[in-house]
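tool=predict chain=A
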Amino acid sequence: MKINLAKVIREARTRGSSKSAEWGKVANDILVGCEVVSARYLTKEEAASLGWSCRPLMLIMHDGTVLYATTAQEEGDGATLIGQTDKGEPLAFPAMK
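tool=predict ok
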């Protein structure tokens, strides 16, 4: 599956405003009910096309939606994706050089 990351970023920038309630609705509309069908790190070529030196983990959903962490709102570089398990244990997937 080839993903146009630059297009994904451009489209994400056009969704909503900086208000948390509006972004929460956008997130719910897009993510609730999604199923992760694949997880992988960005390739070196994908990261380079974004001007990044780090390659974050990418989650690919059943409908083609992709998610990955960046270091800044301006998509400055790939970043660690953090969270926690259903048991409250911390999770971290580091960005790769």
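Residues 5-93 form one domain. The first helix runs from residue 5 to 13.
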